[in-house]
Amino acid sequence: MTAKVARRWLHLVVGGALLMPYFLFVGTVVLALLGVPDFFTDPPALVLTFALALPLVAVTALVPAARPPAVALARGLTGAAPDALADGPARGRVDRSRTACWYVLHLGLGGVVAGATLAVPPFAVLLLALPVVRPGPRSPYTLPTAGPALYLTPIAGLALLAALAGVAAGAGAVLARAAPVLLGPSPRERLERAERRAAELAVRNRLAREVHDSVGHALSAIALQATAARRLLDGPAGGGRAFAGEALSAIEETARRTVGELDAVLGVLRESGPDPGTAAPGLAEGLPALLDRTRAAGCRVTVRGAPLPGVLPRPLDREAYRIVQEGLANALKHAPGAPVLLRLERTASRLSVRLAQPLPPAPPGPSDGGGRGLAGVAERARLLGGSATAGPCEGDWVLEVTLPTGAAPVPRTGEETR
């Protein structure tokens, strides 16, 4: 016997055990009113009791809370696919009716199989032992005690056990096939489940973007600063050592800040932290520090235009910061030391971010570094209803992002260069 058949057999026996309260109630109360004193010894009364117990099962199974335990048993013992079964109580009339049908099927088949499981094995053992052990005069069974038929009883005993196993396997297979039909989610529940999965995937994607943008940018800056510091420390003493000290201080500050951002993102995974987006500052408040870190890593950045504090919606402000951060991280990674021109422009309806850098020997793209950063930028822009393009343009590598704002225009500030 396979483990799957054994689990389904156990599921049927549990159904028979669940049927017993209904069976005893009908036998002791209802049939007593009909004048049947002992329904256990009267086969017609026994069948009638069983038949009358099943409608009572159906009525009680109409309770919405009846579905979760049935689903839990079916998932664990029938082998039905977990996603094929519904979660939570039955909410609609159709769902409650399907649950009631499941209980009738489960407890009905379970009652038959459980009763046979209790009765057949002892009788089969008696048949197997009959050629050696004779039944006493008070035995309830009428069995041959002599002749050729006596030696055929072991075969009959084995046949009974095989028949019991076959009936249990067949009934278990019926329940396994019926479980997704009677306990499966309704169309509304399938839609809700799909929406929950989409929300979970959106959170995961956002977490991945936050980790990539924050940690990736920080590690790129740290690597360049550490390389520069090592080279200066290996050289002659003098002003180079002072610059190396500044680089090491920048590494310390970048690492400390990144640990805080990473902790906020991982807090979401632990379900104990804030929204991962809160780990990122806004463009107006975070841009000066971001520029300082980028310049400390050896990248010359020129900024034309800058957002004024408090004039952008918070989600847009935060995502725009991440976009600029990813663009500068790409510049550090693919062309360290090359000048970068960052242009920020705000109109009545949109915010434009443009980063341009002379083309390096190997321009950044999907074939260099996996392209996850640029894909994340495009995804952020798309979620905000904007657009993003990246590629060579007139001798430069250009990342251009346009985001809708829906707010009043902001005056452009002058040029800042360091």
From TrEMBL:
Pfam family membership, one: HisKA_3
One of the record's GO molecular function terms: ATP binding
Keywords assigned by UniProt, alphabetized: ATP-binding, Kinase, Membrane, Nucleotide-binding, Phosphoprotein, Transferase, Transmembrane, Transmembrane helix, Two-component regulatory system
Highest taxon above the source species: Bacteria
Top-level EC class as recorded in UniProt: transferase
Gene Ontology CC terms: membrane
Reactions the enzyme catalyzes: ATP + protein L-histidine = ADP + protein N-phospho-L-histidine
EC number: 2.7.13.3
Residue spans crossing the bilayer: 12-34, 46-66, 101-130, 150-183
Gene3D superfamilies membership: 1.20.5.1930, Histidine kinase-like ATPase, C-terminal domain
Stretches assigned to the Signal transduction histidine kinase subgroup 3 dimerisation and phosphoacceptor domain: 204-272
Key word ATP-binding present: yes
Name of the protein described by the UniProt record: histidine kinase
UniProt lineage: Bacteria, Bacillati, Actinomycetota, Actinomycetes, Kitasatosporales
